[in-house]
């Protein structure tokens, strides 16, 4: 499938990663994680930087080898512009390419299920963007397919793999805060002008698009424990999706988590964990943390600097989830213990119930 350079490593794990569709942060993620790259349109406005990054950072041992799109002409145009040796004109050809080991699915979430099934049925290991799909039924179909096809599957919850997030888990596991009693996370950005945030057919709504980060944070803090009760309240737009939502999770032993999200208001976008012996504050932006304030003392966890402006804040941190996939595959694992399939299933169950209480119903819920 075109010329690929030799890798100066004792073991070459992955020949190609496919980004579906391509946007700059996702592609940078894989290039910085030593992955060859297949990029599907629509191409990022920072695609030139993407290629420059691939060819500049030789320390990561990556090579852009192909691009794929829904139409061959534009894929070929992009490949020619950036000196990429191969272009794909459809997704099925990619799925049938035996040289591709790992696929990254980055479509909007209503498209996750068919795309993921296509690649897993073709025997491809898979990293799928969050939220995993539209509801618990679809999540179970993904998990069933992964196990049937004996492939790796992980929800791309990039937050969990940041160094700051791993430090949170270390602090909690060692009991440095005592018993955690309260966790709170908030994510609010004015995005009513963004179709995918407000249109039902695109999977819009505050909870599914950004609130998912808050709920996963609560589950990370309480180590994947199932809450005893779920209480949700919020407002819906005329389109039928939630503009804002508050989800309260009650756990055993009088422990609580509060998750707040909005696509209409700018929130502080911080998170806090309070235990009987101390506290952790995660300053903005809590979904891609680069600092922690532990018992009043701040510690920074800086990210590698990009060579050009990014589309999204701290998106060079996407590399950490890519490295998690790589390490899992090197160990022969079919899922990550840090973002397990059971974690993803519980996360979606909670969001299903929260949506039910607020009255958000997608077409996938009635199929």
Short description:
The chain is of the alpha/beta class and 367 residues long.
Task: Describe this structure as you would to a colleague.
By secondary structure, the chain is an alpha/beta fold. It has eleven helices and 15 strands. Strands 9-10-11-8-12-13-14-15 form an eight-stranded mixed sheet, covered by helices on one side. A seven-stranded parallel sheet has the order 4-3-2-1-5-6-7, sandwiched between helices. The longest helix has 18 residues, at 341-358. 49% of the residues are buried.
Structural key phrases:
globular; 32% helix; eight-stranded mixed β-sheet; single chain; seven-stranded parallel β-sheet; 367 residues; disordered N terminus; alpha/beta
How is this fold's topology laid out?
Elements: E1 17-20, H1 24-32, E2 37-40, H2 47-56, E3 64-68, H3 72-81, E4 86-88, H4 91-95, E5 102-105, H5 112-121, E6 125-129, H6 136-149, E7 153-156, H7 163-173, E8 180-188, H8 195-198, H9 206-221, E9 229-236, E10 242-251, E11 255-262, E12 271-275, E13 279-282, E14 291-294, E15 297-300, H10 319-330, H11 341-358
Low-confidence stretches: 1-62
What is the end-to-end distance?
A: 39 Å
Shape: globular
Q: Beta-sheet strand percentage? A: 15-25%
Tally of DSSP helical segments: 11
- Give the mean pLDDT: 84
Beta strands, count: 15
Structural class: alpha/beta
